[in-house]
Amino acid sequence: MSKTAAWIPVALLIFAAGFGTAWWLKPGPKVYLAPPEGMPQYAHDLIIGNPKAPKLGLYLSYQCPYCEEFYEACWEELRRDYVEPQKLCLVLRLIPGPGHPNELRAVRYLQCISPEFLPEAHEALQEWKSRDSLWPENALANYQSPELKACIAKEAVRRSVLAAQIQSEEDGIHLTPSFWFPTKVVMGYEGKKAFFDRVKEMVE
What we know:
The chain is an alpha+beta fold. Helices cover 49% and strands 13% of the residues. The protein has a 6-stranded mixed β-sheet. β3, α2 (65-83) and β4 form a beta-alpha-beta unit. α3 (101-112) crosses α6. It is globular, with a radius of gyration of 17 Å.
């Protein structure tokens, strides 16, 4: 391996961590017009729901206190009333927070887990209160298998998690939580009523 190739993973990690320091410290919310070409699609996107339904992009972090506020206020209703009836498709883009290797590993698990288990796995990680060194393994104990462990160890999976943050920055997303609606991009949590008012506009 060349010296240049050996430095690529380190450079990606430093780049992501540097941007990460601002992910959930900036004030919000701020609302922008969505680009006319629509939300970009990436190979590492985590898809929950009917892929043919209108798509809502969720940019979240398990460290972010405002993401937790959004989850506790909105997630159950969002899944029950819009995702499970196939009215809405969630594009989940999890952005690991700064200096938190456990969260990097948690997102790698979600990249590798079977799609049908993705909603429950995300909920298990979100609701597990401890974020210690064994947090992903404890929260996802019911999903562990040799195949899953082999998958999260792959370099390509690790790189895809870091690339998600870099690509989100390039798309103009600078903090979590952020929400990419068809016509608006909202950076910051506006509250439950405002969020569901925008969701209803999508599906009506």
